[in-house]
Structures are given as C-alpha cells and as structure tokens.
Design brief:
The protein is globular and about 55 Å long. By secondary structure, the chain is α/β, with parallel strands linked by helices. Helices cover 35% and strands 22% of the residues. The chain has a 5-stranded mixed β-sheet. The protein has 2 domains: 133 residues, D-Maltodextrin-Binding Protein, domain 2 (3-Layer(aba) Sandwich), CATH 3.40.190.10; 99 residues, D-Maltodextrin-Binding Protein, domain 2, CATH 3.40.190.10. The chain starts with a helix and ends in a 7-residue tail after the last helix.
Length: 251
C-alpha cells in the first residue's frame, strides 16, 4: 500500500465520526458490481453512508470539473482521473487502477448467431445495434474503435442507436429496442442479466485498452470516509466482487 494512503488512513481512522457520508461517481459498467461492493463496505463500516451515482465517465468528469461535490470517482477511462489531477481537482497519489474493461457483443434474441463476432452485426436480421455514445462514454469509444478496426463502422452506421452510458445501452438490448449491442462484460455477468441471451467477447486488440481507475477528488481528500472506501476497493473482499463481474487488474 502506498505510503501516502497508509498515512492518510491513520489520519482517517482518528478523524472518523458516526454518520459520515461518502459520495461516489461511478462508471455505469459498475452499476451491478457497485451494489455488492457497497453492501460489503457497509458490513465493515456500518456508520458510514455511501451515496453512489452511476453514469458515463465523461459526464461525471465534466460535472466534477464544474464543482459537483463527489468524493470519489470510479472512471471507466483512466484518462479522466488523470485530467482531473492535472487540473488540480483530484489527489494525484490516490490514483488507483482497479480493472481493465472488456467489451462483448450481446443479444437476447434466440435466433441471432453471434459466432461470427462483429461480422454478425451486418446480418439483415439485425436492424438495430446499440452502443454507448462515443462522445462521452469510454465503452462507446471502444465500440466505435472495434467496428472501425473490423472495417464495419460505415456498413452498420445506419443501424446504430446510442445509449447515454453503457448501462442504458444494455437496457436497449434487454428490452428488445435493439437486436444486439456492444456492452460491458461486467453487465452480462451480473445476476440480473446472466441468464438472458448470449454473448461473445470482442478481441482485446480490436480497441484501445479500457484501463479503469479510481481517484479521490480534492473534496474527497478531506473526507476520511472516502479514504476508507478507496482502501476497501483494494481489499481481498472487494477484489472477489470485482472478479465475479469480469474485472481484472492490469497486468
């Protein structure tokens, strides 16, 4: 554990008071995983209230830049926390990689064959393909890059429907508003979606690596409860939860 975090936690332990709150902004690929993480954290720290919001990392980045009062930012793209650090809005020594994201093609329709991978999306039986908005969602940028890498972007561009974030993108597929979608592995492994449809993973070399990281904001650096939550994310208990959802640490 970094020396900074050890010292910070010693300070935090002495400064904690009953009824403290930690406010978290988390990438929406964590929407189901975060429920388990928060439940595990609550068992260890019953006096700390966790307020978590999920959405696109790009939108949270913009909100934090404009003063949104989050203590901790869990981003699907490490570049956003790094930019906050450079802008003096996050604590540099708290930057903590927690996963590499994985992209999958997912459908809930029984008659769709995904064995051809991305090429399957060109089928005439698929009229709508959901991806997250590449403008502000890391998984959307990854989806666009994968389709461009496969030379399919122009061919299926007319089929695309855009989710504001990757959780909404998965919702389009789950509800049948899209025939298939490029979504996060963590979502299709969740208990809510694991028994629905079929999926195949998009090769990791088809898009820039989705390195995900957490960081304390400048506000969070003054909140002992936020430091404890960040430390918890590095614990064995948290790692087990991350692993169940397909999140692996960078090698």
């Amino acid at each position: 554990m970094p020396k900074f975090l050890v010292l910070f936690l010693l300070f935090a332990a002495s400064g904690l008071q009953a009824g403290q709150t930690v406010s978290i902004a988390a990438a929406s690929d964590l929407v189901y995983c975060l429920e388990e993480l928060n439940a595990a954290f609550a068992k260890l720290n019953p006096d700390i209230e966790v307020k978590a919001s999920t959405g696109s990392s790009g939108n949270f980045f913009a909100q934090i830049k404009h003063g949104a009062p989050f203590d901790l930012f869990l981003s699907a793209d490490v570049s956003y926390p790094q930019e906050l650090i450079m802008a003096g809005l996050a604590e540099e020594k708290s930057l903590s990689p927690y996963a590499v994201g994985h992209l999958v093609i997912w459908t809930t329709k029984d008659d769709l064959d995904l064995s051809k991978g991305l090429d399957a999306l060109t089928s005439a039986t698929i009229s709508k393909v959901a991806i997250a908005n590449p403008e502000h969602a890391p998984y959307g940028r990854a989806a666009k890059a994968a389709l461009e890498h496969a030379k399919l972007w122009e061919r299926i561009k007319g089929k695309l429907v855009f989710g504001d974030n990757i959780a909404q993108t998965a919702q389009f597929v789950e509800t049948g508003n899209a025939d298939a979608g490029l979504v996060a592995l963590s979502l299709v492994l969740s208990p809510k979606l694991a028994q629905k449809g079929s999926w195949v993973e998009v090769p990791q070399d088809a898009f820039p690596r989705l390195e995900q990281a957490a960081v304390l904001t400048k506000k969070g650096a003054k909140n002992p409860a936020a430091a404890l939550y960040l430390s918890f994310l590095k614990s064995r208990e948290a790692r087990e939860v991350f692993d169940r959802y397909g999140f692996r640490l960078p090698e």
